[in-house]
Amino acid sequence: HPPTALLPMPLYPLSQPLRVAFTASRTANFAPGNLDQPIVFDQLHSNLGEMYDTHIGRFTCPMNGTYVFIFHILKLAINVPLYINLMRNEEVMVSAYANDGAPDHETASNHAILPLFQGDQVWLRLHRGAIYGSTWKYSTFSGFLLYQD
Predict the structure, then answer these.
(1) Which pLDDT tens digit goes with each residue over 20-55?
(2) What pTM was estimated for this model as a whole?
(3) What are the C1q domain coordinates in residue numbering (predicted)?
Protein backbone atom coordinates (compact mmCIF):
# COMPACT_ATOMS: atom_id res chain seq x y z
CA HIS A 1 0.00 0.00 0.00
CA PRO A 2 1.21 3.49 -0.78
CA PRO A 3 1.66 5.78 2.24
CA THR A 4 -1.44 7.72 3.15
CA ALA A 5 -1.16 11.39 2.44
CA LEU A 6 -1.80 13.68 5.38
CA LEU A 7 -4.77 15.91 4.91
CA PRO A 8 -4.12 19.63 5.34
CA MET A 9 -5.16 20.77 8.78
CA PRO A 10 -6.12 24.37 9.49
CA LEU A 11 -4.07 26.05 12.21
CA TYR A 12 -5.83 28.51 14.45
CA PRO A 13 -3.86 30.99 16.54
CA LEU A 14 -4.12 30.29 20.22
CA SER A 15 -5.77 33.05 22.18
CA GLN A 16 -3.25 35.02 24.20
CA PRO A 17 -3.45 33.91 27.84
CA LEU A 18 -4.22 36.61 30.36
CA ARG A 19 -1.13 37.78 32.21
CA VAL A 20 -1.89 38.75 35.78
CA ALA A 21 0.80 39.34 38.41
CA PHE A 22 1.70 42.05 40.90
CA THR A 23 4.19 42.87 43.63
CA ALA A 24 3.81 45.93 45.83
CA SER A 25 5.59 47.22 48.92
CA ARG A 26 4.83 49.58 51.75
CA THR A 27 7.24 52.52 52.04
CA ALA A 28 5.89 54.17 55.21
CA ASN A 29 5.06 52.93 58.70
CA PHE A 30 1.43 52.06 59.30
CA ALA A 31 0.13 52.31 62.88
CA PRO A 32 -3.56 53.16 62.59
CA GLY A 33 -4.60 52.61 66.23
CA ASN A 34 -7.87 50.97 65.12
CA LEU A 35 -8.51 47.29 64.51
CA ASP A 36 -9.15 45.78 61.09
CA GLN A 37 -7.68 48.40 58.77
CA PRO A 38 -6.87 47.69 55.09
CA ILE A 39 -3.16 47.80 54.30
CA VAL A 40 -2.34 49.90 51.26
CA PHE A 41 0.92 49.02 49.51
CA ASP A 42 1.93 52.23 47.80
CA GLN A 43 4.92 51.20 45.66
CA LEU A 44 4.31 48.91 42.70
CA HIS A 45 7.17 46.78 41.41
CA SER A 46 5.07 44.94 38.84
CA ASN A 47 1.40 45.06 37.93
CA LEU A 48 0.79 42.91 34.85
CA GLY A 49 -2.87 43.25 33.95
CA GLU A 50 -3.14 46.35 36.18
CA MET A 51 -5.43 44.63 38.68
CA TYR A 52 -3.79 45.89 41.90
CA ASP A 53 -5.03 49.33 42.99
CA THR A 54 -2.51 51.29 45.11
CA HIS A 55 -5.21 53.76 46.20
CA ILE A 56 -7.33 51.18 48.04
CA GLY A 57 -4.79 48.34 48.41
CA ARG A 58 -6.91 45.73 46.68
CA PHE A 59 -6.41 43.23 43.88
CA THR A 60 -9.54 42.78 41.75
CA CYS A 61 -9.86 39.44 39.99
CA PRO A 62 -10.22 39.94 36.21
CA MET A 63 -11.45 36.41 35.44
CA ASN A 64 -12.36 33.11 37.07
CA GLY A 65 -9.30 31.08 37.99
CA THR A 66 -6.88 29.97 40.65
CA TYR A 67 -4.53 32.61 42.04
CA VAL A 68 -1.53 32.59 44.37
CA PHE A 69 -0.95 35.31 47.00
CA ILE A 70 2.12 35.82 49.17
CA PHE A 71 2.81 38.41 51.84
CA HIS A 72 5.66 39.32 54.16
CA ILE A 73 5.09 42.04 56.74
CA LEU A 74 7.73 43.52 59.06
CA LYS A 75 6.36 44.42 62.48
CA LEU A 76 7.10 47.89 63.79
CA ALA A 77 9.42 47.66 66.83
CA ILE A 78 6.75 48.30 69.45
CA ASN A 79 5.44 46.04 72.18
CA VAL A 80 2.17 45.22 70.39
CA PRO A 81 1.57 41.91 68.57
CA LEU A 82 1.08 41.96 64.81
CA TYR A 83 -1.94 40.18 63.32
CA ILE A 84 -2.39 40.17 59.53
CA ASN A 85 -5.32 38.70 57.58
CA LEU A 86 -5.37 37.84 53.89
CA MET A 87 -8.93 38.63 52.84
CA ARG A 88 -11.08 37.42 49.95
CA ASN A 89 -13.79 40.04 49.80
CA GLU A 90 -14.77 40.23 53.51
CA GLU A 91 -13.67 36.70 54.48
CA VAL A 92 -10.39 35.79 56.20
CA MET A 93 -8.50 33.24 54.09
CA VAL A 94 -5.22 32.91 56.04
CA SER A 95 -3.54 34.88 58.80
CA ALA A 96 -0.07 35.66 60.10
CA TYR A 97 1.18 36.60 63.55
CA ALA A 98 4.40 38.04 64.94
CA ASN A 99 5.23 38.75 68.58
CA ASP A 100 7.89 37.58 70.98
CA GLY A 101 6.82 39.87 73.82
CA ALA A 102 9.60 42.38 73.14
CA PRO A 103 9.61 45.62 71.13
CA ASP A 104 11.53 44.14 68.20
CA HIS A 105 11.09 43.93 64.45
CA GLU A 106 9.70 40.54 63.44
CA THR A 107 8.24 39.16 60.23
CA ALA A 108 4.75 37.78 59.73
CA SER A 109 4.17 35.94 56.47
CA ASN A 110 1.88 33.46 54.81
CA HIS A 111 0.51 32.50 51.41
CA ALA A 112 -2.62 31.03 49.86
CA ILE A 113 -3.77 29.42 46.64
CA LEU A 114 -7.33 30.63 46.09
CA PRO A 115 -10.08 29.92 43.58
CA LEU A 116 -11.52 33.31 42.61
CA PHE A 117 -14.41 34.56 40.54
CA GLN A 118 -14.31 37.63 38.34
CA GLY A 119 -14.78 40.70 40.55
CA ASP A 120 -13.53 39.09 43.78
CA GLN A 121 -11.16 41.31 45.71
CA VAL A 122 -8.11 40.14 47.65
CA TRP A 123 -6.43 42.42 50.14
CA LEU A 124 -4.50 42.45 53.40
CA ARG A 125 -6.05 43.60 56.65
CA LEU A 126 -4.11 44.77 59.67
CA HIS A 127 -6.17 43.22 62.43
CA ARG A 128 -3.92 44.57 65.17
CA GLY A 129 -0.44 46.04 65.51
CA ALA A 130 1.76 48.26 63.38
CA ILE A 131 3.81 47.78 60.20
CA TYR A 132 7.32 48.96 59.47
CA GLY A 133 7.57 50.50 56.04
CA SER A 134 10.67 51.75 54.28
CA THR A 135 12.30 52.20 50.90
CA TRP A 136 14.13 48.92 51.64
CA LYS A 137 10.83 47.16 50.86
CA TYR A 138 10.55 44.85 53.88
CA SER A 139 6.74 44.67 53.77
CA THR A 140 5.45 43.22 50.50
CA PHE A 141 2.32 41.75 48.93
CA SER A 142 2.33 39.70 45.71
CA GLY A 143 -0.17 37.74 43.67
CA PHE A 144 -0.47 36.00 40.32
CA LEU A 145 -2.80 33.93 38.20
CA LEU A 146 -1.89 30.25 38.40
CA TYR A 147 -4.40 29.10 35.79
CA GLN A 148 -7.66 30.24 34.22
CA ASP A 149 -10.92 28.35 34.66
Answers:
(1) 999 999 999 999 989 999 999 999 999 999 999 999
(2) 0.87
(3) 15-149
